[in-house]
Amino acid sequence: DESEGEAEEYLFKVVIIGDSAVGKSNLLSRYARNEFNLHSKATIGVEFQTQSMDIDGKEVKAQIWDTAGQERFRAVTSAYYRGAFGALLVYDISRRSTFDNVGRWLQELNTHSDTTVAKMLVGNKCDLDNIREVPVEEGKALAEAEGLFFMETSALDATNVKTAFEIVIKEIYSSVS
Ligand code: GDP
Ligand code: MG
Hints:
By secondary structure, the protein is of the alpha/beta class. Helix content is 32%, strand content 26%.
């Protein structure tokens, strides 16, 4: 810290990726507005939301991007990934196929990013434990093998949503400060 009263500003881009209907838009609306939509249609309009958090007394802003219904493989453009310092790779614990596709999303992310990206593997819909198709251990093991943070979340009941975003944002902050 060189001079008193000089405001430092931090703004990091974070992207959310993963198959259609895994809960990406609801994770974002839960985090940014504490809202959940049971019948959410494909994302329209809003490209990103900005959310602030306090780290070491500094205001750190995350500009969090949501795919506007472009989840078909390769449909997400490079502009979406450009400048991202963090990523949430989301699958649905009740749909095995969405977990099987994580590797492709990770590859896409790596292809398009030119910096180190803080990555969190997110197993969403953990409230649906009774129809679970992906054991927690499998998520953990994949994350460990690929060097990702890991968390199971529920956008529905808010489990771990804030924590998942904040771990990524804190990791970015500590890597640049
Ligand atoms: P996206 O296509 O990845 O953006 O997924 P959406 O956020 O639009 O969610 C797809 C569907 O899954 C919607 O019907 C949501 O209500 C539902 N959903 C999202 N998150 C959860 C969750 O954590 N638990 C449950 N049970 N349903 C969820
Ligand atoms: Mg969506």
